[in-house]
């Protein structure tokens, strides 16, 4: 199983461990607690198909003074795995919070706008559409796309069919901003005062703002109900929805 690197043992000595989740991208997440101290340890096997945890570490460091994100406490790597230890963000995921849905949805929209308004200039990561489409095509070629994980309305279709559609529908105009890259409700923590922090930054980059609008609205619809999506767009400050882009970025997500 998992052998903890020596340096990490110093950090985690005496902490009470609880297994949190296994994410889509193959990371194991543990919650570590001692008294009022809460930390999270993310462990990911080395695998070319997965985004390395070292990238998430770099993004977290870059964001440290820019947004409410976990502090990186330690990062270790062994031949077979990577380990990222970070501080715990207080609060709950929006779907578990006992607050009016209208307030939650407003915070989600305003929070996303806030992220997108970070100056993108000094951001070292960029994911323009042509790059994303190339990576998607390479993943299809290598057989890395999980067809069993497609959204229900795409089940039964092949990765090649979806790639054809992706190439056909790739938007010409891009509107790049700093994006989270996986703005789902389970990556946002809130208290009754609003967003307390944002996690899971491994896919952050300068990219079209619709990458987050597409994933965010889909996650919101599935957790809180599709009737809330227009309120999310309104709180974000969107004037008119570009449905082609929404569809394209949701489709793109099937390849990763
Ligand atoms: N620093 C943190 N503070 C509070 N909660 C956290 C923190 N890190 C992780 N969590 C909890 O653990 C869950 C999983 O963590 P995270 O989203 O980073 O992993 P994941 O979804 O498995 O990621 P990936 O898909 O990138 O592997 C989160 O939804 C959240 O509930
Ligand atoms: Mg997550």
Automatic annotation (TrEMBL):
The active site is at 182 (proton acceptor). One of its GO terms (biological process) is response to antibiotic. InterPro entries: AGP_Transferase (IPR051678), Aminoglycoside_PTrfase (IPR002575), Kan/Strep_kinase (IPR024165), Kinase-like_dom_sf (IPR011009). Coiled coil: none annotated. Residues 25-249 form the Aminoglycoside phosphotransferase domain. Mg(2+) binds at residues 187, 200. One of its GO terms (molecular function) is phosphotransferase activity, alcohol group as acceptor. This is Kanamycin kinase/aminoglycoside 3'-phosphotransferase-2. Belongs to the aminoglycoside phosphotransferase family. Keywords: Antibiotic resistance, ATP-binding, Kinase, Magnesium, Metal-binding, Nucleotide-binding, Transferase. The lineage of its organism: Bacteria, Bacillati, Bacillota, Bacilli, Bacillales.
């Amino acid at each position: 199983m998992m052998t903890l690197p020596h340096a990490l043992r110093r950090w985690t000595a005496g902490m009470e461990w609880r297994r949190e989740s296994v994410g889509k991208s193959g990371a194991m997440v543990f919650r570590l607690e001692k008294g009022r101290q809460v930390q999270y340890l993310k462990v990911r096997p080395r695998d070319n198909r997965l985004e390395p945890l070292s990238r998430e570490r770099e993004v977290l460091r870059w964001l440290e003074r820019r947004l409410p994100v976990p502090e990186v406490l330690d990062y270790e790597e062994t031949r077979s795995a990577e380990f990222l230890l970070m501080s715990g963000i207080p609060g709950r995921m929006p779907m578990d919070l006992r607050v009016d849905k209208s307030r939650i949805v407003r915070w989600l929209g305003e929070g996303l706008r806030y992220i997108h308004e970070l100056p993108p200039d000094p951001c070292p990561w960029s994911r323009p559409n042509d790059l994303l489409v190339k990576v998607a095509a390479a993943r299809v070629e290598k057989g890395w796309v999980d067809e069993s994980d497609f959204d229900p309305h795409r089940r039964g279709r092949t990765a090649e069919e979806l790639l054809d559609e992706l190439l056909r529908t790739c938007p010409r105009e891009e509107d790049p901003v700093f994006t989270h890259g996986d703005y789902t409700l389970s990556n946002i923590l809130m208290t009754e005062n609003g967003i307390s922090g944002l996690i899971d930054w491994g896919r952050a980059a300068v990219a079209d703002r619709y990458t987050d609008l597409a994933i965010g609205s889909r996650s919101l619809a599935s957790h809180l109900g599709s009737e809330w999506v227009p309120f999310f767009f309104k709180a974000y400050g969107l004037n008119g929805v570009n449905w082609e882009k929404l569809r394209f970025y949701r489709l793109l997500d099937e390849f990763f």
